[in-house]
Amino acid sequence: MKDISVKRVSEKMKLYKVGKVKEVYELENEPDVLEFLFTDKISVFDKVIPSMIPHKGETLNRTSTFWFETAHKLGYNTHFLERPEANRMRVKRVDIITDYSKITPGTKNYLIPLEFICRYYLAGSMFNRVKKGKVSLESLGFAPDAELVYGMELPEPYFEMTTKLEETDRLLSDEEALKIAGLTREDYIEIRDTVFAIDRELNEKVKKRGLIHVDGKKEFAFNENRELMLIDTFGTADEDRFWDAELYEKGEYVELSKEYVRQHYHRTGYYDELEEARAGGRDEPDIPPLPEEEIGKVSKLYIDLFEKITGESF
Length: 314
Description:
The chain is α+β, with helices and mostly antiparallel strands. It is about 30% helix and about 25% strand. It has one domain: ATP-grasp fold, B domain (D-amino Acid Aminotransferase, Chain A, domain 1), CATH 3.30.470.20. Strands 8, 9, 10, 11, 12, 13 and 14 form a 7-stranded antiparallel beta sheet that branches. Strands 1-2-3-7-6 form a 5-stranded antiparallel beta sheet. Strands 4-5 form a two-stranded antiparallel sheet. About 30% of the residues are buried.
């Protein structure tokens, strides 16, 4: 892929919003453009870890650029404009409407307040939901007598939606998701089909590089003409889960994404403590920093995955 980095034009910027891992800036002379700064922060379970991961921001930004260019080649609209620096991206600005009652099927130029998740293998939170009896294997397309095994490939892609702008993401029924986001059934079908089409390309590309795309999320907005746009980032170590394909064939599930960090907090017991506090309505425990030896491993994980996905050298 060609390097589309450009020399930045000196202009005034103002901090607009600070997210868990990104800072967003307004450009004084370009009111319809925002600039993302991808920091080296890392978050799991809606908690920002008090540790910085060297080079993480750059790998996410460059990987996102790769996938946005891929989406453009497939003919899809995105909010991506340019990458002025290794860890910065400029995008088309849309409105963020937090009051669901103000969103209708006629609203234009707004962020759809949903995250769209597509799963291809039984892993992570979906495996836990099946194990706890909250989701049946049959509803995922398996035969009624199927045995629960971690890492099984799903008979068909499983598509679901969660909230985007609420403090803690929550799963939604199709009916509630469409209602709060101002979507018609036709909008929903277009979004779902777009996710499937882009993932077909993504899955094929990473397969050639020895990776399995397990699952991932995408976000969308409507532009000023109410045309669908792919936004934020996708196909990175933060938004998606990847496994080593060769080791998978041997029955090993080697995490090559942020899931590696989640598993650290599962092993240490923090996740169980957090879930108990949330279920009981108690104050949530602060998430501890990563051990120093883990920080180096996680940094290498992000760099290695970037190189595998894009074919570029870091």
